[in-house]
Amino acid sequence: MSQSTSKWALKYRGATVEDLDPPPALSTKPTELISYALMNAYERDYSHLTVVSEETRALLGYLNIPRLKEMLKNGLVHETDHVEKAMQKFQRSGKVYKVITMDTPLEELEAFFTGGVEGGGPQDFAVVTDDNRRFVLGVATKGDLEEFVKRRPA
């Protein structure tokens, strides 16, 4: 464990994801235009949007807005394309996902971001769900965790 992680862990003092007060997840559909998804992300200053099924509202993947901007800049996608062309899909089969809920301790969330939980590799954000993974409640980022640590008294 690095020294900075240890310093952060001392500031958590039993806090959970709920203490981050994550903003509600903003979802888009695979068939929406990229321009519409971008506009929604900019209006709310979101760096990630979840992508859900139109029929079942099941979580299909996500849009990483900084990555999407690069794809647009490089001509890999266009604002008139559908979200499905730029989204990053969740792999359903053969992969175990770490469930992040409002009750997840911040130490566990930090480990998730740094790749320490179940060896999944570093993550940019976490989709916060209910215990049964039926509802997306919000999105937490490493930046949210950093801001929490800055605000928390020593």
Could you walk me through the main structural features you see in this protein, from its secondary elements to its overall organization?
The two termini are 20 Å apart. This protein is 34% helix and 17% strand. It has a four-stranded mixed sheet. It has a two-stranded antiparallel sheet with strand order 5-6. The protein is globular, with a radius of gyration of 16 Å. The longest helix has 11 residues. It contains six helices and six strands; from the N terminus they run ααβαββαβαββα. It is of the alpha+beta class.
Task: Draw up the topology in text.
Blueprint: H1 3-12, H2 17-20, E1 27-28, H3 34-44, E2 48-52, E3 59-64, H4 65-73, E4 88-89, H5 106-114, E5 125-129, E6 136-141, H6 142-151
Parallel strand pairs: 1-2
Antiparallel strand pairs: 2-3, 3-4, 5-6
Helix and strand content put the structural class at alpha+beta
Mean pLDDT, all residues: 85
Q: Write down the overall geometry.
A: globular
H-E string: HHEHEEHEHEEH
End-to-end C-alpha gap: 20 Å
**What fraction strand?**
15-25%
Strand order of the largest sheet: 1-2-3-4
How would you characterize the largest beta sheet?
A: 4 strands, mixed
The number of helical runs is 6
Secondary structure: number of strands:
6
* Low confidence ranges: none
Helix content: 25-40%
Radius of gyration: 16 Å
